[in-house]
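At this stage, I wrote out one protein, both as residues and as discrete backbone shape codes, and that material follows here.
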Amino acid sequence: MLKTVRQVLFSSGLQSPKWTAMETQSSDYEMRQYEPAKWVSTEVTSMKDWDSAVSTGFMRLFNYIQGNNAKNVKVEMTAPVTTYIEPGAGPSCESTMTISFYIPPEHQDDPPQPSESSVFVTERPQTTVYVRSFGGYANSEKNQEQISQLSERLKQDGKLFNEDVYYTAGYDSPFKPLNRHNEVWLIVKQ
């Protein structure tokens, strides 16, 4: 029941991917197992500008859900908007950011194909992640601070995770000024 309440509170009433809370011994983070699901995504490369990359990606995906797809159908907005970040190899290298919207259940079996070549549908396998939540407006600096804190805490606790990539997850419209919910995710190593 707590899981259901948490999902409703985080998503502001929007549909979200299904996940199960896993047992952890920490109040600094939680562990979730996400079920396999289809997402609509787009990639943006950037030196370090998370904010403009996410804005660019969001607009491509927003056009898709507004009907810029092969079926010309509107698709409901979902939450969270995730960004999968693959940092560049060095300080002057571009990072690849994959911005994604979860495809709602009514379109999971046969999602509309994107009309724009830079937008694609992908199926994420079952994934287990460590999650750290924070409020306010997310930006590149805040995300880095939160991912560093999560990484440090996981290392202290002896947890294994992928140190090369991470996710950010935003649950709120940019027009919601208070009680905002954001997350950073690190993928659990099996």
